[in-house]
């Protein structure tokens, strides 16, 4: 049985993962209507990933004798200055999620809930990958600057990355 403090913190994380999905969906929509179909495909794909992250938490809380809770969510940001702005915000958001997962892990150590700590290992590894991926994309975007041909190429590359995962929804 999960303790109440850990259950509450896990439910907060469920909310954050759901917000992540909505934020990336909002970014995907912006990309799609602003001429970046590849980036849109990548972010639609990432929306699904965040929903999967949320679902893993939901099942975990319920399986441990707790109850997953859904909250009201704030409206995600929908206006961006550029593709660079979008991916800067993706990276910022992932850093925020990493900090949140780490503090959740810290709580499980404090509460001696080693089962949940073990469950969180998957997220800790996932966050390393997410941050590294977003940094790589951001570096590429910075490198091409305003160059239209370079941007077109990056957009194509992002489309390929979404399809490679096999879960693209556009
Ligand atoms: Fe759920 O990892 Fe991104 O936010």
What's the gist of this structure?
This protein has 170 residues and is mostly helical.
Just name the CATH architecture: Up-down Bundle
Largest sheet: none
CATH C-level class is Mainly Alpha
Count of separate DSSP helical elements: 5
Order of helices and strands: HHHHH
The unique ligands bound to this protein are: hydroxy diiron-OXO moiety
Beta percentage is: under 5%
Q: Tell me the distance between the termini.
A: 41 Å
Mean of pLDDT: 95
Tally of discrete structural domains: 1
Query: What structural class do you assign from the helix and strand content?
Result: mainly alpha
By CATH's scheme, which homologous superfamily applies? Ferritin, core subunit, four-helix bundle
Radius of gyration: 17 Å
The number of E-state strands comes to 0
Q: Would you tell me which CATH topology applies?
A: Ferritin
Shape: elongated
Helix content: over 70%
Which consecutive residue ranges, at least 5 long each, have pLDDT under 50?
166-170
């Amino acid at each position: 049985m999960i303790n109440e403090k850990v259950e509450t913190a896990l439910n907060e994380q469920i909310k954050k993962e759901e917000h992540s999905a909505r934020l990336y969906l909002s970014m995907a929509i912006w990309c799609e209507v602003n001429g970046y179909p590849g980036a849109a495909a990548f972010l639609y794909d990432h929306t699904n990933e965040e929903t999967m992250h949320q679902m893993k938490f939901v099942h975990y809380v319920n399986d441990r004798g707790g109850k997953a809770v859904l909250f009201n969510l704030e409206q995600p940001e929908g206006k961006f200055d550029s593709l660079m702005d979008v991916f800067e915000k993706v990276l910022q958001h992932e850093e925020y999620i990493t900090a949140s997962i780490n503090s959740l892990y810290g709580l499980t150590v404090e509460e001696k809930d080693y089962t949940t700590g073990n469950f969180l290992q998957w997220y800790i590894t996932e966050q390393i990958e997410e941050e590294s991926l977003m940094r790589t994309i951001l570096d590429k975007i910075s490198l091409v600057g305003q160059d239209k041909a370079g941007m077109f190429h990056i957009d194509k590359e992002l489309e390929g990355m979404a399809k490679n995962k096999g879960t693209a929804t556009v």
